[in-house]
Amino acid sequence: NRPTFAAEDIKKCHFGAKKCLTDSMNYVIKHYPKGIPEIGFNAIDVVNIGDLNLVQSNGAGGIWVVINLTNAINHGFENTTITRVEGFDKDPTKKYLTITGRIPRLIHKGHFAAKGHLSVIPVNLSGDSTSEFQNLRFTIKLKGIIEFRNNKRYLKLYKVLPIVKIDRWIVSMDDLFKYNSDLTIIVNKIFNDRWLEIWNEWEPTVLDAFSGVFLSIIEDTFQKISYDDLFLP
């Protein structure tokens, strides 16, 4: 059950008050992981990602592969700790709004499908997958414009630039080869032994998804409540 929301429970801050804003954000994350519909803050304990196109290649020489992830969800944002907040000044459009933090374990689940050709060998695999990103550190840079509605200023975000670092990525792909569990184990081991190489290749797609998730969590709040009403006079 979601705890009863009381607006006075959330401490308002002055514009640009970095420490106050950091503490206030951490309070909301800790006490309202299932969201606060009254202010447009969406649930963070289970976040629906949707579908991801991880790899789309049409290489020469008969080698190509397409990897899609569907029905993806994330667990772990509720354990986020914000460590620094910058840029939330009287005029939020002058520079980037920056939010820095860490997540001890971010769990990503979904159904994967891989199709392709490796020389003369056809590839057609599918199954459920679980990814665990350990000790994820992030910095999100946001850019917005001011919109006026009912003589009030609202912040509309239009650019998200995420920077993400992780200590380890652990992947479990079930039923890769439905009739050969040994081969499934071998492929999973190869993937996890070479996780950094794969992460470097897939990072742009993962960061796009991360940007979308972050926006889905916060942008409704900026649309529902005027920018000035989020702060002390």
Tell me about the largest β-sheet: 7 strands, antiparallel
CA radius of gyration: 21 Å
Encode the helix/strand succession as letters.
HEEEEEEEHH
Low-confidence parts: none
- What is the percentage of strand-forming residues? 35-45%
Distance between the termini: 33 Å
Average pLDDT rating: 87
C-alpha geometry: elongated
Number of distinct helices: 3
Count of distinct strands:
7
Helix content: 10-25%
Report on this model:
The chain is an alpha+beta fold and about 230 residues long. The protein has helices at about 20-30, 180-195, 195-225; strands at about 45-55, 65-75, 80-85, 95-120, 120-150, 150-165, 170-175. Strands 1, 2, 3, 4, 5, 6 and 7 form a 7-stranded antiparallel beta sheet that branches. It is elongated, with a radius of gyration of 21 Å. The mean pLDDT is about 85.
